[in-house]
Structure to design on (460 residues):
DNA sequence: CGGCTACTTGACATCTATCAACCGGGGTGG
DNA sequence: CCACCCCGGTTGATAGATGTCAAGTAGCCG
């Protein structure tokens, strides 16, 4: 991996975590690297190990018997891959590009979590945040046109990345069209067409592995107008 | 209210909760009743009070600026209305039919929760379960046809009710078509038509305020066939 | 009994899925 | 080093599902 593995495993502890506890947590985990596309764990599998993402991007998804797939999230460095409470994984996870993770034995991690009300509370807040994200996603899946869905996805993605580093132009888009489609409940052709339409409107510009966002922010999403139209 | 308020506030404590702790929790809350349609709290409002549902049905929803609505859940007795950690409500809630709730001061409830690792853990598991529900819902919203969505909704609803009492025939359906539509990301006309179609297939039978489920179970949903077709 | 609200049904428009062809870049093997 | 192939992506034509607009029905409450 060319990138430095600088992302400390903040995990659900975020910044407000006690340095001592953070050190303890780090000692509990072992660093592992997954190549692009590799499955980290699968739905319904026993969750003996649980993972926190330290570098790269993952995709979490559920699969239906007939092969249809729903991507439920694209975790970024610092995110935990699911809740460490259940004894089985509730979704599958794999690496989008090369990723670095911290692996924990679930039993050890649980013991650690329960040893400190502070950590426990952090985990609660993480869970509440995840729930909130899922409910936002419900809103998007239930109400949006393809264009709204794609535009909102791009903005959210940019903002999440910006939260980690400086705003990058172009915004990298490491996942495939199919992943975005399965995230937004659309077909990959629709993703492609919608991106093309947004590009024609001069709202975005597609680049090899990313996208430039011109007139796309929360305000324009809220009003349904793009800066290019104003 | 004609029904007895027999539903004890199990809340996130469920059955495994220590009787002493349960008594303490009950003392913390005050019983309140909301008439049909009344708003319990609204999105973004300060969450000074938080609620557990003891009788009736609620609807939780997010609203977009242009009025579009996404129902994120239909809580049943024993369910908590959201996570008590955030200082603001992340969605609105109102009563579907007359409901009875336990109201807590958030600060007091939080203090209570943090006083006991056992309770804390219960709350965690509740949160994890809520997240799981939301992700199942994502799957449904992203992948299903209208017929799949409605059929799955009916089965899930029946199963949730069955978990509380005996299976009822007909299964009561206290929410409006519009609520179901906003839950499933469809239009109310589509709900109406889809229900009619399922009735013609002899899979369901509509009754004044409920529905009889004939050949509808998890197996038939998985295979895409209904018992009536076999 | 009247009027309101929820619900149903119909006709039509539109969006997205589907099927299919094609393009382009990166990697592999000759 | 070049050619080929494979995979991801784009674009086009078409059909079908659902949204939209509109009218009409049924049940409930005053």
């Amino acid at each position: 991996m060319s990138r430095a593995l600088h992302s400390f495993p903040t995990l659900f502890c975020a910044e407000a975590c006690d340095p001592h506890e953070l050190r303890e947590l780090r000692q509990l985990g072992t660093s592992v690297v997954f190549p692009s596309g590799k499955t980290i764990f699968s739905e319904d599998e026993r969750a003996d190990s649980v993972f926190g993402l330290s570098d790269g991007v993952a995709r979490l998804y559920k699969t239906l018997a007939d092969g249809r797939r729903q991507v439920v999230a694209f975790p970024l460095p610092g995110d935990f891959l699911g809740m460490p409470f259940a004894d089985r994984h509730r979704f599958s996870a794999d690496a989008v590009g090369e990723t670095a993770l911290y692996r924990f034995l679930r039993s050890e991690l649980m013991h650690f979590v329960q040893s400190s009300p502070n950590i426990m509370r952090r985990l609660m807040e993480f869970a509440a945040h995840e729930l909130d994200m899922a409910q936002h996603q419900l809103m998007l899946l239930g109400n949006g046109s393809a264009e709204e869905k794609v535009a909102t996805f791009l903005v959210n993605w940019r903002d999440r990345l910006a939260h980690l580093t400086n705003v990058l132009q172009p915004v990298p888009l490491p996942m495939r069209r199919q992943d975005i489609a399965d995230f937004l409940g659309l077909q990959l052709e629709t993703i492609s067409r919608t991106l093309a339409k947004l590009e024609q409107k001069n709202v975005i510009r597609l680049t090899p592995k990313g996208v430039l966002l011109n007139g796309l922010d929360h305000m324009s999403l809220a009003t349904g107008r793009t800066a290019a139209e104003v």
Q: What stands out?
A: The helical segments of chain A are 19-28, 106-115, 117-143, 146-164, 177-184, 188-200, 218-223. The first strand of chain A starts at residue 30 and ends at 34. Chain A is about 40% helix and 25% strand. The first helix of chain A runs from residue 19 to 28.
